[in-house]
Amino acid sequence: MSQPKDFGFGEDEKLLRDSARKFLSDTLPVDKLRKLVAGDHVEAYESAVQPLGYDENLWKQIVELGWTTLAIPEEAGGAGMKVVAVAAIAEEAGRAALPSPLIPTLIATAVLCEAKSAAASSALGRIAAGEAASIAITNAQGSWEPTDTDVVASQSGNETTLSGTASFVQDARKVSFFVVSAKNSSGIGLYVVDADAPGVTIRPDQIVDLTRDQARVEFKDVVIAADKVVATDGLEALRRATPSMLVIVAADLCGAAEWQLQTTAEYAKVRTQFDHPLGFFQAVKHPIVNAMIDIDRAKSLTYAAACEIDSEQATAEVAARMAKSAASDAAAFICSRSVQLHGGIGFTWECDVHIYFKRQKHNQMLYGDGIYQRSKLGEML
Question: Rounded to the nearest 5°, which phi and psi values hold at 242?
């Protein structure tokens, strides 16, 4: 089946994207972002626990705008929009380097939507009502393959208990609940666990990305009620959700990369050297053009993958891994060039480029960088 025109990106999606861009431009200009996350380098990197660095009032406004409900089915209280719409919001979040639990909540939504159970619908209803969520599926070695989880679910009669640790959990200190994968007698189960449930301990990581937090979440004999068991065999749900997860992160990468590109190009116009703007020199303008080409290619692949998910194409995972590979590589290239082409100031704390650089490096590795994605594509093809 052929793809629809413009990847199915219609007037509703354009309106959503444009309104999101204006909203974030008005409410989170880069100077406010700097104060939120990079006001003090000692506090950011040398304090015992990194500050959360996000605006709770801004997050409430985002919830009121309905961004967290985009992919939630209408019967669960959501907007029931397409993945291309979700990608558009993720791209704008990346463009603004938005510090919030939006991206992990969109990813958790993708997993819950694929679980198709009463417990999943209930959890989606919580997100639709304004709660944030994050998935907890990664082991201590950094593997996000569903079968590699370090958490174990034990069954005794009608009672389920979780024990173990989920690592690299995104924005763990900002969310209300986790969607946890755990090994059980049926294979891999999925469970909803409240962040403040007895037996849950959140241990923050020290990370370079200032726009989010990350943590290890420990589960010590955490009792799971029957209505919180999303799936006793959740392996297929996680696999079906993988394309959406990759597309969301790829879109974030593309949005941030465009900010880096535009900011660097503007700097090259106004900064002069040898009586010429920096952009006059081939050593400057050629890398900027190459970055633009890389970012456009990544964006095309990202929206093509989102469209394949919307149209339920069998090749959606292939397309999503291509998108994440291209977006990761484009981000790596523009990161190095944006710092280099800003000259001496590009290496300083005062230059906002470093905020995006660090977000990009985090997203580049999240769920696999370009090399990892191409290795998976090699296996699939």
Answer: -55, -45
Distance between CA 251 and CA 366 in Å, rounded?
Answer: 13
Please determine, looking at this structure, whether the domain spanning 236-380 carries the CATH number 1.20.140.10.
yes
Q: What is the DSSP letter of 348?
A: S
Rounded to 10 deg, the angle between the 11-27 and 56-65 helix axes is 160
For residue 205, count CB atoms less than 10 angstroms from its CB and return exposed for 0-12, middle for 13-18, buried for 19 or more.
Answer: middle
Pair of tokens at residue 125: 């209803």
Rounded to the nearest 10 degrees, what angle do helices 11-27 and 83-95 cross at? 20
What is 134-234's CATH superfamily?
Butyryl-CoA Dehydrogenase, subunit A, domain 2 (2.40.110.10)
CA angle (213, 184, 239) in 5-degree steps: 60
- The H-assigned helical ranges of 11-55 are 11-27, 30-37, 41-46
5-132 to CATH, choices 3.40.50.1110, 1.10.540.10, 3.40.50.720, 1.25.40.10: 1.10.540.10
The rounded mean pLDDT for the chain is 93
SS3 351: coil
pLDDT at 3: 76
Query: What pLDDT is attached to residue 275?
Result: 67
**pLDDT, tens only, 365-378:** 999 999 999 999 99
Distance CA 83, CA 356 (A): 24
pTM for this one?
Answer: 0.96
Outline which parts of the chain fall under CATH 2.40.110.10: 134-234
> Other CB atoms closer than 10 Å to residue 189's CB: what's the count?
26
* Number of neighbouring beta carbons within 10 Å of residue 299: 23
Backbone phi and psi for residue 100, each to the nearest 5 degrees, phi listed first: -170, 170
